[in-house]
Amino acid sequence: MRTGRYPRRGLALVAGAALLTTAACTAATAATSPAAPVPGWRVVKTIGPDKNNVSGLLTADAAKDAWSVWTGSGPATVLHWTGSAWTSVPVPANLNRYVQSAVAIGASSGSDFWLFGTYRSTEALRWTGRGWAPQAIPSWVLRRAGGTVTATAAVFGPGNVWVFSAGAGSYAAHYNGRTWAKVALPEVPADVSAAGSAGIWALGAEYAMHWTGASWATIRLPVFPLPFGDYATYGDLTAADAKDAWVVVSIYDSSHALVSTVPAYWTGTTWQLLNSPADILGSMAPDGGGGLWADGIDINPGGFWLLYHEVGGHWTSGQAPPGVDVHSPTPLTRIPGTRSLRATGTAFNAKGNYGVILKYGP
Predict the structure, then answer these.
(1) Which of 202, 231, 301, 335 is placed for a possible disulfide with 209 were both Cys, Cβ 3.0 to 4.6 Å?
(2) Higher per-residue pLDDT: 52 or 254
(3) In terms of residue numbers, what domain contains 282?
(4) Which of 227, 260, 287 is the last residue of a domain?
(5) Residue 249: pLDDT above 80?
(6) Number of domains in the chain
(7) Does 265 lie in the same domain as 333?
(8) In the 3-class helix/strand/coil scheme, how is the chain assigned residue by residue?
């Protein structure tokens, strides 16, 4: 991808595209005392710094239950949020390779955590609340595309587990507590996001696919007029709830140079486009109150990834994520049932790279 020149911002090239212009609420309720300020982004957990090139995976199934897996040159670290603290869940040395090769994690509770990795692609590693145990899975659950495995796991209970391998066949793997089955998809998934068992979304080449609980519904991805030779690609799918989702539209010119990235929102009936706060958008997450968080970066002049918040169709100025030195905080993850979010990031000091977990909100 050639990005040597400054992209045209937002929707400058999208003729006739509808902007998302939700009016901000102006009514206020009288209060006898000022409302308590919402805590901003901050570091709530540091991992390391005993490992190099550390990176983290994060999943959140409830306000009082979340998991994070960190890998690097040292022993892997598995952390569990119990509702009051991040605690380490020790992994036996003979199972460390499972964690080091992790490509997808998911959980429904503190006693139902799944880790899928490439060390042994015919086994998943499970935490039952009492201990770790490998569990056999079919060889087609984790599949390679282009030599690598990129997977997403969605765990809604011991008898309801989904695994999607990006770019590797038009089906998902589903576990019902007894057996694994292939569930056909309308298209090969490139990205997957879940907001509850009835809010699973998958991104194909031409369609966004939504699991209704019984079958996959298809929604044509946004199509709009572009100058001759320009084209659009789609990525960074984010499920807002069972009916709503976001996707990033990347617009390129005829020389394949990136022109702009535009968030598109499926309202349940149509796609609406929102101006972008940055040249390139990374991960996104709904804020639980009708708004959206996103991280992004401008290309020229290049700089650090910033966090942006959209409310009522307007973006706040970008803010640098605290405690993150090496790369963008990713993924932005909403804590279900709240207006709070988490993210992971990497920092460094004289001892090497170390990981951080960030949180926004109480």
Answers:
(1) 202
(2) 254
(3) 54-287
(4) 287
(5) yes
(6) 2
(7) no
(8) CECCCCCCCCCCCCCCCCECCCCCCCCCCCCCCCCCCCCCCEEEEEECCCCCCCEEEEEEEECCEEEEEEECCCCCEEEEECCCCEEECCCCHHHHHHHHCEEEEEEEECCEEEEEECCCCCEEEEECCCCEEEEECCCCCCCCECCECCEEEEEEECCEEEEEECCCCCEEEEECCCCEEEEECCCCCCEEEECCCCCEEEECCCEEEEECCCCEEEEECCCCCCCCCCEEEEEEEEECCCCCEEEEEEEECCCCEEEEEEEEEECCCCEEECCCCCCEEEEEEECCCCCEEEEEECCCCCCCCEEEEEECCEECCCECCCCCCCCCCCCCEECCCCCCEEEEEEEEECCEEEEEEEEECC
